[in-house]
Amino acid sequence: PRGIYYHNGSKPEERSKLEAESLIYEELVPGHHFHGSLQSENEDLPDFRRETHFTAFSEGWGQYAVWLGLEMGLYQDPYSRCGLYLADIFLSTRLVVDTGMNHFKWRRSRAVKFMKENTTYSDTQIHTESLRYSVGSPGQALGYKIPSIKMAELREKVEKALGEKFDVRKYHDAILGSGAMPLNILEKHIDWFIEKELNSAGE
């Protein structure tokens, strides 16, 4: 079996390639494809759990994985690392324009102006993204940055609790091994993981 990833290559002269590498890590490995494959192939989960999707979990992991790529040394040159930071700036900007348009009643023109002033995106990209968060998928932007911060915070919590016993591989297994779940349940799951690890260390 093989997987095919379709990348939006329309109007390449109007789209920066700097962010391509971070996008690939988000969408493929160690991001969505990795998470999705583990979940769908996990026979310890009931069928409905293997197909369950929660935007905050999957997109949170995708964004966490982008930064995990930096930790793993995957970004080989300063241009790719610059693209990572530019993508993160845009991710944060989307929080503002999504909330602005859908809660504070911003006009789309104000959102476009804000993105032009705070990102390096072209007019074509800003046009697409402003439509996406005004009428296409309102509220979706919140499911990226905030959950990825939560997963990083949970990692810090585990590191602090386990000290020298902390193993990042076990933490990632705790995140991905039980499939997608709401963030409040994930937090309880990580608390259980901490207790289990502490008990096993004391045996």
Structural summary, described in words:
α1 crosses α4, α5 (78-102) runs antiparallel to α6 (108-118) and α5 packs across α7 (123-136). The mean pLDDT is 94. This protein is an all-alpha fold and 203 residues long. The radius of gyration is 19 Å and the shape is globular. The protein folds into 2 domains: 17-76 and 145-203, no CATH class; 78-143. The chain has helices at 20-27, 32-40, 47-50, 55-71, 78-102, 108-118, 123-136, 145-162, 168-176, 183-202.
The stretches of 5 or more residues where confidence is low (pLDDT under 50) are: none
Order of helices and strands: HHHHHHHHHH
SS field, number of helical segments: 10
Largest sheet: none
The outline comes out as: globular
What is the total domain count? 2
Helix content: 55-70%
Pfam families: DUF885 (PF05960)
Organism: marine sediment metagenome
InterPro entries: DUF885
Protein name: DUF885 domain-containing protein
Characteristic key phrases:
single chain; mainly alpha; 203 residues; globular
Secondary structure layout:
Elements: H1 20-27, H2 32-40, H3 47-50, H4 55-71, H5 78-102, H6 108-118, H7 123-136, H8 145-162, H9 168-176, H10 183-202
Helix pairs in contact: 1-4, 1-5, 4-8, 5-6, 5-7, 6-7, 8-10
Quick description:
The protein is mostly helical and 203 residues long. Helices cover 67% and strands 0% of the residues. It is built from 10 helices and no strands.
